[in-house]
């Protein structure tokens, strides 16, 4: 197997698009297609299922991907060792979530981009089970989690910071200034992100313990959820870091209810995985920059 074919395969497998892979690698799309076909021919198996305009990895492709990444990483390390290159380089695919990307990770991403420009960062927005599964399969190198549990099967995890949660509503909401019980909350219009978001799921479980029906008005983003709450559409439980500006300016008010669960922002990677030098650097800087914010 030629290294350049594995590099192309790894890129296509990561972005799941021949067009995007060609742009990232600065190839013509026909070259990418030809290289993937050449690799499939040499292995005697198909690596991608073509589903109209979409593609996905076959079982063979899923098995090859972690080996391809390991070969690429070892090649880059060997080149650096032989040439004496001190500057870290390589690809780094990071699973993350909107609340962390927008409100916690900016200092880390800016630092890494400027300090290590030869490291190719790719962010993938997923949450919970999707992120953990992608880490176990080797699709992501590392992933950020915001969970109550700090131990996850098949993963090594480092807790970066406790993530305070706050229940918010518009100024003038009837529960502002009071100490509401769960029964008071379940009677209010509830705003949240989609299921699978850890704090939404835990909040829902807590309210359902009353035995009453619980319904949420769902929004695709935290920004949309905040705007809806500020407009008086209902109340929402969100990470405090995501609403700090609105609480400071007064467009949202904190309700005097403390959630009976604690979430922690964590960085995880597949258990037993040998982290290349540039991935270890990312972990170290995440530990420093994200923890400092807490």
Helix and strand layout, with pairings?
Elements: H1 3-15, H2 18-25, H3 29-43, E1 48-51, E2 54-57, H4 59-83, E3 90-96, H5 98-103, H6 106-115, E4 119-125, H7 128-137, E5 142-147, E6 155-163, E7 165-169, H8 182-186, E8 190-192, H9 198-208, E9 216-218, H10 222-230, E10 235-239, H11 240-249, E11 253-254, E12 263-270, H12 277-293
Parallel strand pairs: 3-4, 3-5, 8-9, 8-10
Antiparallel strand pairs: 1-2, 5-12, 6-12, 7-10, 7-11
Helix pairs in contact: 1-2, 1-3, 1-4, 2-3
Kindly list the characteristics that best describe this protein:
single chain, 294 residues, alpha/beta, Arc Repressor Mutant, subunit A, D-Maltodextrin-Binding Protein, domain 2, 2 domains, 5-stranded mixed sheet, 12 helices, 47% helix, 21% strand
Q: Tell me the domain tally.
A: 2
Any idea what the radius of gyration is? 22 Å
Main β-sheet: number of strands, strand sense, barrel status? 5 strands, mixed
Amino- and carboxy-terminal Cα gap: 46 Å
Strand content: 15-25%
Sheet/helix structural class = alpha/beta
């Amino acid at each position: 197997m030629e290294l350049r074919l594995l590099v192309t395969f790894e890129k296509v497998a990561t972005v799941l698009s021949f067009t995007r892979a060609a742009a990232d690698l600065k190839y013509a799309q026909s070259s990418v297609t030809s290289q993937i076909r050449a690799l499939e021919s040499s292995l005697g198996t198909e690596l991608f299922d073509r589903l109209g305009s979409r593609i996905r990895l076959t079982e063979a492709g899923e098995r090859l991907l972690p080996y391809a990444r390991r070969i690429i990483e070892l090649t880059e390390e060997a080149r650096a060792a032989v040439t004496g290159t001190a500057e870290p380089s390589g690809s780094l695919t990071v699973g993350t979530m909107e609340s962390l990307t927008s409100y916690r990770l900016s200092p880390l991403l800016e630092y890494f981009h400027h300090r290590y420009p030869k490291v190719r960062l790719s962010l993938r927005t997923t949450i919970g089970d999707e992120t953990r599964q992608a880490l176990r399969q080797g699709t992501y190198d590392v992933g950020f989690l915001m969970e109550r549990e700090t131990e996850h099967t098949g993963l090594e995890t480092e807790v970066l910071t406790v993530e305070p949660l706050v229940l918010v509503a518009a100024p003038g909401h009837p529960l502002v200034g009071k100490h509401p019980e769960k029964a008071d909350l379940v009677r209010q219009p509830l705003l949240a992100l989609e299921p699978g978001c850890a704090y939404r799921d835990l909040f829902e479980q807590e309210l359902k313990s009353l035995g009453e029906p619980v319904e949420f008005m769902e929004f695709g983003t935290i920004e949309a959820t905040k705007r809806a709450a500020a407009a008086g559409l209902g109340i929402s439980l969100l990470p405090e870091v995501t609403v700090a500006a609105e609480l400071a300016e007064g467009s949202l008010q904190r309700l005097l209810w403390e959630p009976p669960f604690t979430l922690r922002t964590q960085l995880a990677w597949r258990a037993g995985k040998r982290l290349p030098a540039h991935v270890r650097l990312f972990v170290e800087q995440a530990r420093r920059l994200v923890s400092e914010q807490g």
